Amino acid sequence: MRDGRVRIEPADVLLVIDVQNDFLPGGALAVPDGDAVIAPVNRLAARFPHVVLTQDWHPPGHVSFASSHAGRRPFETVPLPYGTQVLWPDHCIRGTAGAALAAGLEVERAELVIRKGHARDVDSYSAFLEADRTTRTGLAGYLRERGLGRLFLCGLATDFCVAWSALDARAEGFATFIVADAVRGIDIDGSLDRAFAEMDAAGIHRLTSGEIG
Ligand code: VGL
Ligand code: ZN
Fold it and tell me: Which CATH architecture has domain 13-57+97-211?
């Protein structure tokens, strides 16, 4: 849903999803135009009262890597105990340069970094719930304990980690906004249009950073 200007309130949180080298042009799982989010994210991060970051943070041999499945290639899908998994190139291996936050990201005011996808056999696009849909990252409890939220999401990738995080934020009862000029998508077989349709249907607000006052 589109609405007009929104004024920043004291409990508002900017949730910066996965702005990591492997998702930038030249990275292992490059999101087209992914580096375009850095400038708007920096401007937002300077203005929000609270900033929380996520990092995709996989062990070597992670179940989401095509290289962990004999004969499979990136962007194919496989059935796993928790559902259908898209297979990716090896990316965001914990501690590597590819997993590091983008060099130009100015987020020193971030109060929390949530790392996700760290269990070898379960992926986690969402900042709240792993792909088994039962294991929690702790983020909802952290936000509630501190009395924080509304949530304003930005980062990468719109149709995977941003959308899953936004949908779970909404399901947790947080007022949730997507900052459209501060996200970019991967877009596999229409996944970007689908993600926006699902977010619209869930009551997630869409605005541009210029509409945040
Ligand atoms: C992501 C695919 C695999 C993301 C993470 O950050 O959107 N996408 N791992
Ligand atoms: Zn990943």
Answer: 3-Layer(aba) Sandwich (3.40)
pTM of the complete model: 0.97
Minimum-distance ligand 1 atom for the alpha carbon of 162: 7
Question: What is the whole-number distance in angstroms between the Cα of residue 124 and the centre of ligand 2?
Answer: 7
Pocket test for ligand 1, best of 37, 125, 164 (most atoms within 8 A of CB): 125
| pLDDT (tens digit per residue) in 167-190 | 999 999 999 999 999 999 999 999
Q: Is the CB of 172 under 6 A from ligand 1?
A: no
Residue ranges of domains in the chain: 13-57+97-211
Band of pLDDT at residue 151, cut at 50, 70 and 90: very high
The dihedral through the CA atoms of 11, 146, 116, 42 has a sign that is: positive
